[in-house]
Amino acid sequence: MGEKNNIDGEIKDSQTITDVEKLRMIHCLEPTVHTEQGISLNVNEPSQPTRLYKRRWFIVCLFSSYSLCNSFQWIQYGIINNIFMRFYNVNTFTIDWMSMIYMLTYIPFIFPVTWLLDKKGLRVIALVATALNCAGTWVKVASVRPDLFPVTMLGQFCCSLAQVFILGMPSRIASVWFGSEEVSTACSIGVFGNQLGIAIGFLVPPILVPNVEDMEQLSYHIRIMFYITAGVATLLFILVVTVFQERPELPPTQAQATARSIPPDQYSYTASILRLLRNKPFILLIISYGLNVGCFYAVGTLLNRMIIEHYPGEEVNAGRIGLTIVIAGMVGSLICGIWLDRTKTYKQTTLAVYLMSLVGMVVYAFTLSLGHLWVVFITAGALGFFMTGYLPLGFEFAVELTYPESEGTSSGLLNCSAQVFGIIFTICQGKIIDEYGFIKSDLRRQKANQLARAALSFQADGQIAGHDYGATALINPAPPPQA
User: Fold this and answer.
1) What is the pLDDT of residues 309-345, one digit of tens each?
2) What is the distance, to the nearest Å, from the Cα of residue 448 to the centroid of all Cα atoms in its chain?
């Protein structure tokens, strides 16, 4: 009894001890423990050999790279919403769906994908993800014509399907390849690639595709952007085919060693889902994570519309503001990862980040219309630091709450919640903008330019004599000279 009390005291004093080690110490007199998940663990087995391989850093960086390429395409249409509206001659809500299709596709496909992850492993998932992403980019290359909007939508659908094989993988890769003192940092690096891709998606399209009037020139710029994306996606697919490895020969931790030793006949994917849905702390995390990340998805999708309304002609700065949000979030992600590896204070950190995200959103909303663009940069950065910096924290907290369930399954449910709330928030916020007249389709500058070009054309044909006074000459034409 005294020995057990001493063990309990050791567990309370240690914040870094693994769940399997706790089971081994608490049940040191019992050779087999049946977990809540119905899995039998022999906790008195001698420690199995473990090893950390240098290759683990290459694996997580390669994953991060193809995640970057995929997430870049999520926002590449939305951040220059007005340009693609004109090029494909569609309305703004249709272009919004080019981002929302990422969210919509995730919801029905996440369950078969997480099942495939459990059955086939990381390498198969990585191959399918990069193949779909590569195919989608080349479909887009073939869609650069004003009458081929359905083709570009097909390409975006392929990329959104690839995202299902990517978004929930950081925590799985961290668990399979990294030690217990670096899993949160590794997960942050995996999420880092996704965030960096979104950042580039905010920054690069407004630079590569300027808002020019000539449709041939606009087509050329769009094609250049699509070719660059396709080239990068193809290179990453080749790298995954040649060098991506399923898992290390020896597990990195005793927890992974134990997970490997679980017989396949003791695991049921359906039973795992049901157990997760009965886990009340995890359900609360799913809802709160979805609200937080779904809000970020809505802000990212509608950022161009919000900025252009208050700061007309600032497409490039809209992209820079999006970049600021995500870069700040990347910093927040890395800090969260390092902090969690040192303290393991998941709940306290989560509550603090939620509170600061709420404050950041309120401040951003009330400063957007002040007329000072530099203020928007500051408030957007503060919002992004907490709101998008929370992503790896949510993944790792979910793994802690659901161990020894599959990391891909718990992460997939978190992301599914985020996609649902993202679609709801994006549609509602977009409708509010339209209903209250924040964005009007009365494009007066374009009409004035069209009138001016018409006036020049008439003059060239000798149909109008005298001087040209620009667009206003047609709006209020002078009476013709009397004979």
Assistant:
1) 778 877 778 878 888 888 888 788 778 777 877 777 7
2) 39
pLDDT reported for residue 48 = 74
Residue 455's alpha-carbon distances to 213, 467, 471, 479, 481, in angstroms, are: 17, 10, 7, 15, 17
Distances in whole angstroms, Cα of residue 263 to Cα of each of 20, 44, 49, 69, 335: 17, 17, 19, 36, 37
Nearest to 85 by CA among 74, 96, 75: 96
Considering just the CA atoms, what is the radius of gyration of the chain in Å? 27
- Three-state secondary structure of the chain: CHHHHHHHHHHHHCCCCCHHHHHHHHCCCCCCEECCCCCEECCCCCCCCCCCCCHHHHHHHHHHHHHHHHHHHHHCCHHHHHHHHHHHCCCHHHHHHHHHHHHHHHHHHHHHHHHHHHHHCHHHHHHHHHHHHHHHHHHHHCCCCCCCHHHHHHHHHHHHHHHHCCCCCHHHHHHHHCCCCCHHHHHHHHHHHHHHHHHHHHHHHHHHCCCCCCHHHHHHHHHHHHHHHHHHHHHHHHHHHHHCCCCCCCCCCHHHHHHHHCCHHHCCHHHHHHHHHCCHHHHHHHHHHHHHHHHHHHHHHHHHHHHHHHCCCCHHHHHHHHHHHHHHHHHHHHHHHHHHHHHCCHHHHHHHHHHHHHHHHHHHHHHCCCCCHHHHHHHHHHHHHHHCCCHHHHHHHHHHHHCCCCHHHHHHHHHHHHHHHHHHHHHHHHHHHHHCCCCCCCCHHHHHHHHHHHHHHHHHCCCCCCCCCCCHHHHCCCCCCCC
C-alpha to C-alpha distance for 455 and 460, rounded to whole angstroms: 9
> Band of the pLDDT at 296, cuts 50, 70, 90?
confident
Per-residue model confidence (pLDDT) at position 5: 44
- The most confident of the ranges 130-144, 157-171, 356-370, 424-438 is 130-144
pLDDT in tens, 8-37: 443 333 333 344 444 343 333 344 444 444
Q: What is the pTM of this model?
A: 0.67
Among 148, 20, 30, 161, smallest CA distance to 101 is for: 161
